[in-house]
């Protein structure tokens, strides 16, 4: 499948889908405190998405049973919210969420500290986020897709962390997952040329230890094989002739 190029009209719809998602992340961030369950966060997300008149693109995706993913500590991605999973001081949690606005999908993830956490985990979260910004230095027309992958890898590798290979970023638009796949690790080919109007979900998933992951028996939750903590950071990005537009960050929001 070719990589879709969005028209100006479609870009406007992507912008709105992503702006709403960014607003929701700002709300959910305030929930992250010891004592809350991951199910409480999911239920809050459902309320917010409904209040926007949108729907979650995660719910029922290949049978996924919730509206967001909440991945705690050694869980890399796709953690299923549960009322028994209560956050406690020292945990780290990634909230991965998306929604559909007038047929257009958004997708973004953040990793947060629950109260005070170990300095090594603070650093993991920070480096994972920064690796996204290192990658998007190449997210503009004229560069190639794998310039992004290589920049993420070059940055993360300096810290000796494990870059997850089993899961990758993706194009996004009228489906949550479109071409191309976007690896977060070094590629030998440069990949397709980036063009204005491409919308990409770029999402490094980084482990403190081994990059190897396994699935839990729930068939969804991806965990690091060695039990080391894992962080995830994702935004939906628009390729332009100039700087990329990070559609799921709010101007003046707390994440910029
Ligand atoms: N947001 C995830 C991604 O970045 C997809 C979640 S799939 C779900 O590709 F089924 F868990 F929702
Ligand atoms: Co994604």
Index terms:
256 residues; 4-stranded antiparallel sheet; Creatine Amidinohydrolase; 26% helix; 5-stranded antiparallel sheet; binds cobalt (II) ion; binds 2-amino-4-trifluoromethylsulfanyl-butyric acid
- Count of strand segments: 15
What's the N-to-C terminus distance?
33 Å
Helix/strand-derived category reads: alpha+beta
Low-confidence stretches: none
Q: Which homologous superfamily in CATH is the superfamily? A: Creatinase/methionine aminopeptidase superfamily
- Taking all residues together, what is the mean pLDDT? 97
The name CATH uses for the topology is Creatine Amidinohydrolase
Describe the overall structure.
The chain has one domain (8-246): Alpha-Beta Complex (Creatine Amidinohydrolase), CATH 3.90.230. Helices cover 26% and strands 24% of the residues. The protein is built from 4 helices and 15 strands. The protein has helices at residues 8-29, 38-51, 119-135, 145-157; strands at residues 55-56, 69-72, 75-77, 92-101, 104-113, 162-163, 169-171, 178-182, 199-202, 205-207, 213-215, 222-224, 230-232, 235-238, 245-246. The chain has a 5-stranded antiparallel β-sheet with strand order 8-7-9-14-15. Strands 1, 2, 4 and 5 form a 4-stranded antiparallel β-sheet that branches. Helix 3 (119-135) runs antiparallel to helix 4. The radius of gyration is 17 Å and the shape is globular. Cobalt (II) ion binds next to loops.
């Amino acid at each position: 499948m070719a990589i879709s190029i969005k028209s100006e009209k479609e870009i406007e719809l992507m912008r709105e889908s992503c702006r709403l998602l960014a607003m929701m992340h700002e709300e959910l961030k305030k929930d992250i405190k010891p004592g809350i369950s991951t199910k409480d966060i999911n239920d809050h997300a459902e309320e917010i998405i409904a209040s926007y008149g949108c729907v979650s693109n995660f719910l029922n995706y290949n049978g996924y049973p919730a509206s967001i993913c909440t991945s705690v500590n050694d869980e890399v991605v796709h953690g299923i919210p549960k009322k028994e999973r209560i956050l406690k001081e020292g945990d780290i949690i990634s909230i991965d969420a998306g929604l559909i606005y007038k047929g257009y999908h958004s997708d973004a993830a953040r990793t947060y500290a629950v109260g005070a956490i170990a300095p090594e985990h603070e650093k993991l979260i920070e480096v994972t986020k920064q690796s996204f910004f290192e990658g998007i230095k190449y997210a503009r027309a004229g560069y190639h897709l794998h310039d992004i992958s290589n920049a993420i890898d070059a940055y993360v590798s300096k810290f000796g962390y494990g870059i997850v290979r089993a899961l990758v970023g993706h194009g996004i638009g009228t489906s949550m997952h479109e071409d191309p796949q976007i690896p977060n690790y070094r590629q030998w080919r440069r990949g397709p040329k980036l063009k204005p109007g491409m919308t990409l979900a770029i999402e490094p998933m980084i482990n403190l230890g081994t990059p190897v992951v396994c699935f839990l028996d729930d068939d969804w939750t991806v965990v690091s094989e060695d039990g080391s903590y894992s962080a995830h950071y994702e935004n939906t990005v628009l390729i332009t002739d100039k700087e990329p537009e990070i559609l799921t960050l709010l101007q003046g929001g707390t994440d910029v």
